[in-house]
Amino acid sequence: MKTTYERIVDVNEIASEKRGDIQDILALAEQEDLPSAALDKKRNLLLAIDVQNDFMESIGSLPVTGSKSDVQRLTRWMYKNMASLTQIMCSLDSHSLLQIFHAGWWVDKAGNHPQPFTIIRYEDVVEGIWTVTYADSLEQSKNYLKNLAAEGKKELCIWPYHCLEGSFGAQLETQFTNMLYFHSAVRKAKPLLVYKGQDPYTEMYGIIKAEYDANGFINHAVLDAIQAYDAIYIAGQASSHCVLASAAQILEYFKEDKAITSRITLLTDCMSPISGFESVTQQAFESMKEKYGIQIKKSTEVIL
Questions:
Q1: Does residue 137 share a domain with residue 178?
Q2: pLDDT tens-digit map of 186-214
Q3: Does 138 lie in the same domain as 239?
Q4: Which of 279, 261, 205 is nearest to 238 (CA)?
Q5: Residues 168, 85: one domain?
Q6: SS3 44
Q7: For 3-48, how does the pLDDT look when each residue is reduced to its tens digit (9 = 90+)?
Q8: Residues 125, 152: Cα–Cα separation, whole Å
Q9: E strands, the chain, where?
Q10: pTM (2 d.p.)
Q11: Do 232 and 261 sit in the same domain of this protein?
Q12: Count of other CB atoms within 10 angstroms of residue 282
């Protein structure tokens, strides 16, 4: 390509509050002459999980250590494989202020909200240790906690306010966005943006479904897209939570079809775990490899 990586991505501005000018990126893309993604014989999909400002070191409310380097490696991989990368799908955590995993949802007997990373269990609510801010949400909140415990899911964790709709923290990281739209313009492929986590009564780590949802919502649009590609590459944040949950949900859905699960590759140097979850995350990935036949590779080992 005529455009160098450095003209698209300023590595010194990864995870910064400096806003780029997308018009400059599009002007660079106009100089390129790569074929349309619609002509690709082998269709390659990048599934980028929650590459958002609030998960970035130095600027995020829920920063993941290693995320800045992850973005640099991911954007370099996107650049090197520009001519063969057919489509990019991005999940975006998208929350309101009042959601069951935010502090404002809960109060103790003294009227205090829980601190970040507090764990709230069904028994805590039954015993009156915690109650909801708005009384009309009590029964549904208790039902959610009860079903989390019954199904052996993650316990409810109070997370710092993050990815609030319309906020800077909810936006895709700027330098990743530069590469995303450079790819879109050069390959004539509209990015697929998938918003998740908007139901106030549940957590949604994975891209396919919530931790518990009485209505049983499943994002078939994402599953249909995955089924349509010959190879799927997964990256993003955090590997221990939203990436892991997304991969697990996809693999569980396609568990009877190794022809699909074996198409999936985790780009492990383009994702990082939340501190303390390193070992359990690695074990989970290795288990997926053994059970479903997925591949676990560094981005430098993958040329499309």
A1: no
A2: 999 999 999 999 999 999 999 999 999 88
A3: no
A4: 205
A5: yes
A6: strand
A7: 999 999 999 999 998 877 899 999 999 999 999 999 999 999 999 9
A8: 18
A9: 44-49, 87-93, 106-107, 119-120, 131-132, 156-157, 192-196, 231-237, 264-272, 295-297
A10: 0.96
A11: yes
A12: 15
Regarding whether 256 and 170 lie in a shared domain, the answer is yes
Counting Cβ atoms within 10 Å, is residue 22 exposed (0-12), middle (13-18) or buried (19+)?
Answer: middle
Sheet with 192-196, strands from edge to edge, namely: 192-196, 87-93, 44-49, 231-237, 264-272, 295-297
Q: Which two tokens stand for residue 189?
A: 């492929």
Which residue, among 194, 191, 298, 291, has the nearest Cα to 246 in the 3D structure?
194
Quote the domain boundaries for residue 114.
103-157
Q: Are residues 79 and 140 in the same domain?
A: no
Same domain, yes or no, for 83 and 201? yes
35/161 Cα distance (integer angstroms): 42
Contact 286, 300 (CB under 8 A): no
